[in-house]
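name: query_chain
kind: protein
chains: 1
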Amino acid sequence: MKHKNIPVFIPHLGCPNDCVFCNQRKITEHTEFKEEDVKKTIDEAVSTLTPEDEAEIAFFGGSFTGIDRSLMIRLLELGKTYIERGAVSSLRCSTRPDYIDGEILDILKKYGVKTVELGIQSTDDKVLAACRRGHSSAQSFEAMRLIKENGFELIGQMMTGLPGASPVSEIKTAEDICKYADGARIYPIVVFRDTELAFMAEAGAYEPYTADELIKRTADVKEVFISHNVPTIRVGLQANEGLTGGDEIACGGYDEAIGEKCDALIYSRRLVKLLDGYKGKSAVIAVAKGHTSRASGHKKENKRKIKDLFDIDVKFIEKDIPPYTAELCEE
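structure:
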């Protein structure tokens, strides 16, 4: 079965504050929410599903459990009708740590929510304060604990490149998420126009990162999730989340191919270690199924790098081995 999310964007509803990096209107490409449009959105998406698809209705874009309670329940009731008729398997929502408690989780469970995506961003209280996040790391840990104790699947969302963050604090955040989460999303910082972060950068209070810096730090974080067998289901914003062009970005080196380039860097590290001391002029290397392009690198940069470093021509084959591992094979 192929998993698909049917996204229903609820921009900024339920969120009590503006984090310095947030421009929800640009991220979701919506300026308002019309409840009457939700059913049409879901119906259109359901009509495209095939028998091989396993779908969830996903309430994204805002703090779903913080919106008006009657609206939240109406949306959940609508979503449940699609479960009952077999069109989707479950519901999914994204929210903040300070909008999770036992009562909320009971409601989500009643209407068929299976997965909660939690916007943790950082477990460093200094970073949370610098970002004006509006909650503490203690609230993040409590929310993660409650979500798992109540039987939900948990996806931990974090960011790299935040004000006040360091490589150490980002790795610590990933390690903290791994204690609870079933999966993760990593969002490298984007300095959107008309955000407090953009004004901070203009005033010299925040130094934007280059693309290479963000790629390295994001790859370092993903390595943590790999080592803990926590799947990273997404790196970076998608095109439909406001990144169809560069006009929305004020500054910084965000790269739309950052997910691909992070994977290339992770494989590059493994390949260099694997081939260090290798004496041949060519090598056959096995990687996980579906990972040949990732191992080859963005525009085959890893193949060129190995040739430049070791004068070795590399050929990749696929094998039933864990993702992000590489093995030398006999030619």
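note: The chain has two domains: 2-256, 263-329.
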